[in-house]
Amino acid sequence: MDTVPARTIITKNRDSSWFGCDYNMNLYRGCPHGCIYCDSRSACYHVENFDHVRVKENALLLVRDELRRKGKTGVIGSGAMCDSYNPFEQTELVTRHALELIDAFGFGISMLTKSDRIVRDADMYQSIAEHSPVLCMETVTTADDDLAAKLEPGAPSPTRRFAALKRLADAGVCTGVVMTPLLPFIEDNEENIRGIIEKTAESGARFLYGIMGVTVRDGQREYFYDGLERAFPGQGLAARYAKTYGNRYYCASRRAASLWEFFTRECERAGLLWDMPDIIHAYKKNYLYTQLSFPF
Ligand code: SF4
Fold first, then answer.
1. Ligand 1: distance of its center to the CA of 237 in Å?
2. How far apart are CA 74 and CA 97, in angstroms?
3. Taking residues 203-224, what's their average pLDDT?
4. pTM above 0.85, yes or no
5. By residue range, what is the domain housing residue 232?
6. In a domain? residue 291
7. CATH value at residue 168
8. CA distance 232 to 197
């Protein structure tokens, strides 16, 4: 597959408020899942030809050297700007080999994906969990496969994502669902949220993290509006977004307050954590980090 030059793969996060991740790792550039709301398309990220996936040049050598140089272990997050389980990973195995390095160097991992390919690496997540925190998460914005096919046309269906979580949870891996975004006028209703809560609980996941809106920026906005017109022709959704939110960054559901109350109540009823500090505590509580001390 095509490569793209890279100077670094693993960067230190300014804070660890996002799922307790101390570092961020992007092995690939671009993503073929085609989500109409994808934030990574925003002009500020300067990723040209986003649908075309490229692997970072010498990715595994960089990962090895960067892990070796880190002063402290910690949790490495993946899935913020690309999907580590894009279809090419099946044959490229870059994510799998990066997990092997993460395991060998004593780091933890927080993996976010929209793919069920993550199940292939259940053994790696089990191995890492022997010494460090592990979190495997699927993004799900609707449990309705037909609606998801319109919003996320290149990604495996929510049914497949929930099945993957079930297999990981059965293997003893800590799992969760990330419900971001929740698209106003399309997904911001109790029925949609209830569907996600039910499937999340059935999958054996520990938590459901969610927001009641979508972030939209320059570059992403144009693609999003085009996608809305393609997915829901004649419904005027793009015009409705433009009229309601203009150029606003965070487009909150008009029903955000009542939906949030419904979401938190129903999560608690289903035995799911929803608050970020509780989620972080739940998957990290059995681990204590130590200074690195490698024999190599
Ligand atoms: S899976 Fe994530 S990175 Fe890929 S298109 Fe969808 S939102 Fe963007």
1. 21
2. 18
3. 97
4. yes
5. 3-284
6. no
7. 3.20.20.70
8. 25
